[in-house]
Amino acid sequence: MEVKLSKMPEPLLKIRNLKTYFFTYAGIVKALDGVNLDIYKGETMGLVGETGCGKSITSLSILRLIQPPGKIMEGEIWFKGRDLLKLTDEEMRKIRGKEIAMVFQDPATYINPVLTIGEQIAEVIMLHQDLKKDVLEMKIEELMKKLEEKPNEKLKAKIEELKKALNNPPNPSKKEIKKVALKKAVEALRLVKMPSPEKVVTQYPHELSGGMRQRAMIAMALSCKPDLIIADEATTALDVTIQAQILNLLNEIKKEVETSILIITHDLGIVAEVCDRVAVMYAGLVIEEADTFSLFKNPLHPYTKGLLNAIPKLYGNPSRLKIIPGFVPNLINPPSGCRFHPRCEYAMEICRKEEPKLIEIEKNHKVSCHLYG
Amino acid sequence: MRKNLNSWIKDLEPQWREFKFIIYLLKQSPLVIAGFIIISIFIIAAIFAPWIAPYGPEERIWTEQMQPPSFKHLFGTDENGGDIFSRVIWGARIDLSIALTVVGSAAIIGSVIGAISGYMGGKIDEALMRVTDVFLAFPGLILAMAIAAALGRNLINLTIALIVVWWPSYARLIRGVVLSEREKLYVEAAKAIGAKNTRIIFKHILPNAIYPLLVNATLDLGSVILTAAGLSFIGFGAGAGIAEWGRMISDGRNYLFQAPWMATFPGLAILLSSLALNLVGDGLRDVLDPRLRR
Amino acid sequence: MVNNGVILEVKGLKKLFPIKEGVLGKIKGYVYAVDGVSFNLKKGETLGLVGESGCGKTTVGRCILRLIEPTEGEIIFNGINITSLSNSEMRKFRREMQIVFQDPYASLNPRWTIKNIIGEPLLIHGLAKKRELHEKVLELLLKVGLSEDHLNRFPHEFSGGQRQRICIAKALALKPKFIVLDEPTSSLDVSVQAQILNLLMDLQQELKLTYLFISHNLSVIKHVSNRIAVMYLGKIVELADKEDLFSKQLHPYTKALFSAIPIPDPELTRKRNKIILKGDVPNLINPPSGCRFHPRCEYAMEICRKEEPKLIEIEKNHFVACYLEM
């Protein structure tokens, strides 16, 4: 299923026809049934949909974290020129945390409670980065400080020797590596504007509040300067004012660190707040993909329209919410043709028979609906 | 009348569906199936003993003492000419019914005490738990022996002794379940509509304790068989000549070299029955785990 | 006994949770969950109670129904002081006041069928016999949009929206006059939430119900409420009619709350003036001195640190607890 692209550079992440199925007692749940998605370098992409649409499964599939009874059946996930689904486990492990990092929903449940924040961030750094040079640089720095206090010929010579070794640094001890990693962890925390990062590095997760924990997790995700961060409902468990802080932080970081962010959420308000482009999912498929302003101003797919109508507006005055009739379909036996047709007020004969393709209707606005082609 | 029966069946429909799902899950483990088959054989033997056993439990054929296993006597005969095969079948009756009685009574007594203790909390909880602790402090076997010795050495008193030994673990178990269920939202919802405490404990909370109770009970059945047989072996249960597995091993001990079959077959019966119950119990525990995704 | 249409009066409600330490359970301090909340509810209206986690709104709801015992204060329902009634006396009142909880799965007993769950209140209060349950429960199910084949199923066989409908049907069983809705749609999807909100509003009109609607979602609150109370750290900081509050927020926290809520309209949301509060929601154990909001408030003055402001009527029916307005 080829998708027509307008003239944009090659995407950082290109998902084509991704199918992830779950084999259960009740039948085969087709959680993802041909997902197509593009994420470009340096942009914040929103993936929005309701419970069961498959957005979380998509992020887990990208990182190949799907466990039995789930299985990625077919599809391609192109990332920096390689198909992630064809990599070995070892190669995939090198990508997780380093090139693609993930921030999950509830920091209370996914942070290790018995390790300090510093240890957890340092672990990621130690796993993925070669710190030999950094250790050497740290040693040189320490010695230079000593030199300032008490000039000494022997010390000077030692420093020169170490500097020469910079091109071929020796293997440092575990203790030294940890020390350097912790330093880098402090830097990462500073990047996310964490107050008193040197203190936080020694604290345990339960000593921090929810917002600070999530900040620490974002720091962990950023620590190896990944190309893509996946934030899976990262602010859902937080209070509104704290969520505003975190969203503000993401906006600021984007300008400093050139990383792409995939924000997965059910809250269209968050999408409006921080995303450059949005993809809307329904019943295991992406049914609309556009830049944010176009999506909200001119939603094309009837489901997107219905979703926007169903949200109580903070400003404006409707008395009864316009609801989408019916229920989310059963993914074991999804409806034939277009999955939304049983609930769609514009459904036509063809909608029952044929599944519509994701086609670019206007510039940067793709939709899969028979109303448009 | 017809309408009542129909509606009664309909009411039980959801439980029946759940039962079928559990059976489906259990069938996936060959060990569980094996255990189930073995214990079913014992249960059938116990129920239909009068029709299956070729000889009576105390029937003695003085001309055929200490005969090795043969077609006439599948497991051989003992020193009194009793057919071991028949006696093992009759013994199933005794040991299995002791196990059921002990576990059933201990579960009921323990559950009531544990539920009240866990729900009421405070001083009642403290008092009941200290009583439970006292019982738990005694090594089970010795406590059972002491009670059996005091009341008199027969099977009924053995059963009573074992109930006394076993109820505290159920009290602890149910108390734990009640403590965690007590904080749950549906209990608060029940209070919001005006439900009284007894209603909440027995109709709301206890049904949620069924699964852990069932697992524990199944595993305990195996343990009780072992303990009852063991106590009978040392003389605290079945009297001389009674066809009970432990007693039979004790009687056969003196003839271990001349007629090993006398002790072996009852021993095998104890082993297989409690093993089977353990297999089924383990299978149940895996299946009834609350993390079971539906 | 109803005086001028007021169905519920809450006066000076306080709830302190003791923090015990050590083997002997010595009291180390208190969590000031609710620290002096007062308001009235008129028959037929919906009061929205909005605030973030830890502000005490859920505790207020539960105290009114005496699911949690208030430490101080009075609750007067239909003119009768129900604060210190015994359990059996309270049982009568439970028919008039019901609650719908946030988590529809946890509030339904997983081992009971829907018929028994919804029918239980009728059995407890002697309003139906066991054989009549089928008919009466069916009536309630139809009212909330479910059907007969849902009667003999377990809660886990339903979706979130359906479970919440079951909870609403159960709340209606005793024909109450007042229902506390504790975040009833927070765990539901947007489209399901819309269905449930419409249902609640229809039922309110049809059955002349009074609602206390608790939520952290301002847009939902705006949709269903007549009046809105904003809570912060156990106190009400602002209370006004819906229109008044939305046209003008007086308390700095309310202003921040309004600006923090993501609006599904990228033009509006990115152009507006955002107030990003510094710091975290502080500790309920050692609340800040004076005005609880002062550590995070950009307008904080000397007096804010020293003395707690009282909730005063600044404009008609618009109450604020803030020195800026005095």
Topology of this structure?
The complex is a heterotrimer of chains A (373), B (294) and C (326).
Chain A: E1 13-24, E2 27-39, E3 44-48, H1 55-62, E4 70-79, E5 82-83, H2 89-95, E6 100-103, H3 107-110, H4 117-128, H5 132-149, H6 153-164, H7 174-191, H8 197-200, H9 210-222, E7 228-232, H10 240-256, E8 260-265, H11 268-274, E9 277-282, E10 285-291, H12 292-297, H13 302-310, H14 349-353, E11 359-362, E12 365-367
Parallel strand pairs in A: 3-8, 3-9, 6-7, 7-8
Antiparallel strand pairs in A: 1-2, 1-4, 4-5, 9-10, 10-12, 11-12
Chain B: H1 2-11, H2 13-26, H3 30-47, H4 49-52, H5 84-120, H6 122-137, H7 140-151, H8 155-182, H9 185-192, H10 197-205, H11 210-233, H12 245-253, H13 261-287
Chain C: E1 6-21, E2 26-42, E3 46-50, H1 57-64, E4 72-77, E5 80-81, H2 87-93, E6 97-100, H3 114-124, H4 133-143, H5 160-172, E7 178-182, H6 190-207, E8 210-215, H7 218-224, E9 227-232, E10 235-241, H8 242-247, H9 252-260, H10 266-271, H11 302-306, E11 312-315, E12 318-320
Parallel strand pairs in C: 3-8, 3-9, 6-7, 7-8
Antiparallel strand pairs in C: 1-2, 1-4, 4-5, 9-10, 10-12, 11-12
Helix pairs in contact in C: 3-4, 3-5, 4-5, 5-6
What do these coordinates show?
The complex is a heterotrimer of chains A (373), B (294) and C (326). Chain A is an alpha/beta fold and 373 residues long. Chain A has 14 helices and twelve strands. In chain A, helix 5 packs antiparallel against helix 6 and helix 5 crosses helix 7. Chain A is elongated and about 90 Å long. The two termini of chain A are 15 Å apart. Chain B is globular, with a radius of gyration of 23 Å. Chain C has 326 residues and is of the alpha/beta class. Chains in contact: A-C, B-C. At the A-C interface, helix 10, helix 11, helix 12 and helix 13 of A face helix 6, helix 7, helix 9 and helix 10 of C.
